[in-house]
Design a protein that fits this description.
Elements (H helix, E strand, L loop, with lengths): L5 E2 L2 H14 L3 E5 L3 H14 L3 E5 L1 H8 L6 H19 L6 E6 L7 H18 L6 E4 L6 H16 L4 E6 L4 E3 L2 E3 L13 H11 L5 E5 L18 H14 L8 E3 L7 H9 L2 E6 L1 H17 L17 H4 L1 H23 L9
Parallel strand pairs: 1-4, 2-3, 2-11, 3-4, 5-6, 6-9, 10-11
Antiparallel strand pairs: 7-8
Helix pairs in contact: 2-12, 3-4, 4-5, 6-7, 7-8, 10-12
Length: 354
């Protein structure tokens, strides 16, 4: 079952998913926006001796390339490609397995996903491996027919490259990087995916390739005051049971994803993992973990961010405003916060690297 360190794709990625489900644990899927945040996730995974999933939203990819690029769409494409290339180059040196993934892509972002698949096709021609392990389509705002139709159209193209497709059924509350809806504006019933819809998706896509489902069970993006979010992981159990009974499969046949993991109750996280969740997204908490140390550093060294040389005693502040100082503190913030995530998901010490 052991794998080589670095970015995993194809059968290696499937082994990562199967091992997590069989072992009763899940992997954090962490959104990144820069080399600093990407490297911090790798460092955190190495420290926990856990494999990990790194992902980019469309605007995160754009930021990775640089907001100075005039063509925003092109920046979203090349930013994601650059992050994947970076991971392919450095991840193996951290001694763990990494899956490269892109996050929510709604209807208007389908061309973004297809452009990235195009880059993976070119990479596959040269190396026999795709650039990414998987991509996500979030067409939950559209009809179920359109959602599954687009998944069925794109999945075979990905299957040829050994890639997996993640898609959303139901609606994850809140908004993330321009995709989603405000929590207060959503019909509450849409926060809870119907098992019959999950069965329909399974029957349409199961023969086309490898896929995972982000089924909504009340989860939301961001963090909210207690009482605003009511998670019902039993919906995941009902979906697994319906597919299992209908098609006489083994236990937990579906590969499930937990979106909106930041701020969730630990008991609900453990329950969701027991129902076949192998991946939990985390972004809001790691954003805070990255930013808080920077704020603390600036508060501790206020003059260094106002003048280069102290006007009173001539003290030079170069060694304090050196970006490497506070950005390293920010990286360490992510590393420490993710130790909690690895522990919550039960993946500590379970890397597949032999």
């Amino acid at each position: 079952m052991s794998l080589k360190p670095g970015v995993v794709t194809g059968d290696e990625y499937k082994k990562l998913v199967d091992a997590a489900k069989a072992g009763g644990y899940a992997l954090p899927a962490v959104n990144v926006t820069s080399t600093n945040t990407l490297n911090a996730v790798l460092e955190a995974a190495a420290k926990a001796k856990s494999d990990v999933i790194i992902q980019l939203s469309n605007s995160g990819a754009q930021f990775y390339a640089g907001n100075g690029i005039a063509d925003g769409f092109q920046a979203k494409v090349i930013g994601a490609v650059a992050a994947a290339q970076h991971a392919h180059l450095v991840a193996e040196h951290y001694g763990i397995c990494v899956a490269m993934h892109t996050d929510h892509a709604n209807k208007k972002l389908i061309p973004w996903v297809e452009a990235l698949i195009g880059y993976s096709e070119k990479h596959f021609e040269k190396t026999g491996r795709p650039l990414f392990s998987s991509h996500m389509l979030d067409l939950s705002e559209e009809t179920l027919e359109f959602n599954l139709g687009e998944c069925a159209r794109i999945l075979p193209r990905m299957t040829k490259l050994g890639m997996s497709l993640e898609f959303e059924l139901g609606v994850t509350g809140g908004e993330e990087d321009g995709v989603g809806q405000d929590l207060e504006s959503i019909d509450n019933s849409k926060l809870y995916t119907q098992p019959q819809d999950v069965l329909r998706a399974y029957e349409k896509l199961n023969k086309l390739g490898h896929f995972s489902i982000a089924a909504s069970f009340g989860n939301v993006h961001g963090v909210y005051k207690p009482g605003n979010v009511k998670l019902r992981p039993e919906i995941l159990e009902a979906s697994q049971s319906l597919v299992q009974k209908t098609h006489n499969t083994g236990k937990n046949p579906l590969h499930l994803v937990f979106h909106g993991g930041s701020g969730s109750e630990k008991e609900k996280i453990h329950q969701a993992v027991s129902y076949g969740v192998f991946k939990m997204n985390i972004d809001t908490d790691t954003q805070f973990a990255f930013s808080q140390p920077i704020g603390a550093y600036v508060e501790k060294n206020p003059k260094a961010f106002k003048v280069q040389v102290d006007p009173d005693d001539g003290t030079p502040y170069k060694k304090f405003y050196d970006p490497r100082k506070y950005l390293r503190a920010a990286e360490q913030g992510i590393v420490e916060r993710l130790q909690e995530a690895f522990a919550d998901l039960g993946s500590v010490g379970k890397t597949l690297v032999g």
